[in-house]
Structure formats: C-alpha cells, structure tokens
C-alpha cells in the first residue's frame, strides 16, 4: 500500500516541470490534507501513514490534472480566504493572500471608525470573498457585491450561503453601470479590479494566464487604469461624503492611481505594501 511519503515522492517527480520543489510541497500538503481530512502537521509527522486504494487512485488523477498546470484550488473546488472556506471554479479568480490584507485593512478601519459604517460595496466581487469575509467579521454592515459575470455571481451566492453571510449581489457592468439600479449611499466602496497589463502577463505563470478568468485579470493596453477611474467617478455619486474607497492595485501604478484619486478630490490617500513589500493597496 502507498504511504504519505510515497505520494510526496510521486508528486515531486511528477510536478517537477510545472512547479518548483517548495510549491510542489505546498500543493501536496494541501491535497493530502483535503483528501485524507487531516492536518498538514500530521502528514509531516507521520509520513508512513498508509493511503487506501480509492484515495490513491484519486491522487493519481489529481496529479494528471496538476501536470496540465491547472491550479490546485480549481481541482479541489475550494480554497481558504480570511479563515473561511470558499467554493471556486474557473468562473472566478482564486482569492489571493494580498486581498486578505486588503480585507484586514478595511476591518481595522471600520473597527476604529468614529462614525458608523453601514453600507459596503465590493465592485468585481468574483467569488464574493471580500464582502462575505467583511460581513462575517462586521456583523452590523449591509454588504453588497457587483459583478459582470452571471457564473461568478452564482458561485458568490453559494459562498455567501455556506458562510452564513447575508450579501446583496447585483449583476452589472461597472463600465456601463445601468442608471435604473437603486443603490444606497455607501460608506465604503472596495474593489480589486482587473489590473494586469500585457507586459505583466508575459511574466506571469501560465497556470494563472491559462486557467483564471481573463475578465477578472486583464486590462486594455491603452487604458490600464480604466477601472480605477470609472470606480472613482462612480464613487462621486454613490459614496457618502465621508466615505472611503479601498483598492487593490497593480504595484507599478501606485503613483498614477493616487494621482487619479487626487484629481477627483479624494483626500487622505494612503498607500500600503503587501507582505512581499510591493505597493498593493490604497485607501482614500
Ligand atoms: N493579483 C492577481 C495576480 O497577480 C491579479 C488580480 C487582479 O488583476 N485584480 O494574479
């Protein structure tokens, strides 16, 4: 019978062309802990643990899928974000740790705020990870999420339900926002819009560019900040007078994003780095 240790060997060899050894190890741990319903620490502590036949067979088919470059989160069908479990499919961007940092910043800000924060809107919500984790941690808010994609919103709604978070989802294109959708004034508008340029694309891992939704990632070459401009303009009518905007940004466009916010009369603009030290988030 195969052991945990054998699977590590099998996967490390099998994935050598797709991932570096550290990435492979993280992926194997994720898969084994999910499949065997055990902790990563236990897997490491007991490498001689035996793996039954159906699971061993499943692991072989997972390995074949991983070799194509398909992200492990899509193979497992779920991922963790801000301590919650989220269903993911190729219809939604896989939630990233940088976005957890953005959520953390919003939660801190709301908890410290002197005026009440009630209505929060996330634009381009995808899996719904932002409004759902905010609602989970800030019970008094009304959370809203907009997305252009019907398929993404279907996943977002399932995630809201499984995480027992009440979120209002609206299907709309922010670049052509319909005038007849009634919205409250928002105290916070947040967005992690598409921000990857063609130049960045060429440097990215193909397991992102070949598998994740392009509408969630890529921006037009001639106007890479289009979403930021449109959202800042949208905020002029839809954000309350002391409201806040939070953005996740492309690390190369910090200065330009600050500038476009300034031009639109935003004040108290703050830029923050992510855990890798890259300019990644703005609050204004
Ligand atoms: N951070 C994502 C990536 O680099 C991009 C997310 C986005 O475009 N909003 O894969």
UniProtKB/TrEMBL annotation:
Residues 118-208 form the Methyltransferase domain. GO terms for molecular function: peptide chain release factor N(5)-glutamine methyltransferase activity. Signal peptide: none annotated. Keywords: Methyltransferase, S-adenosyl-L-methionine, Transferase. It comes from the Bacteria. It catalyses: L-glutaminyl-[peptide chain release factor] + S-adenosyl-L-methionine = N(5)-methyl-L-glutaminyl-[peptide chain release factor] + S-adenosyl-L-homocysteine + H(+). Substrate binds at residues 192-195. Residues 25-77 form the Release factor glutamine methyltransferase N-terminal domain. GO terms for biological process: methylation. Its EC number is 2.1.1.297. InterPro entries: DNA_methylase_N6_adenine_CS, HemK-like, Methyltranfer_dom, N5-glutamine_MTase, PrmC_N, RF_methyltr_PrmC, SAM-dependent_MTases_sf. Methylates the class 1 translation termination release factors RF1/PrfA and RF2/PrfB on the glutamine residue of the universally conserved GGQ motif. PANTHER family: HEMK METHYLTRANSFERASE, MTRF1L RELEASE FACTOR GLUTAMINE METHYLTRANSFERASE. NCBIfam families: hemK_fam, RF_mod_PrmC. Belongs to the protein N5-glutamine methyltransferase family. PrmC subfamily. This is Release factor glutamine methyltransferase.
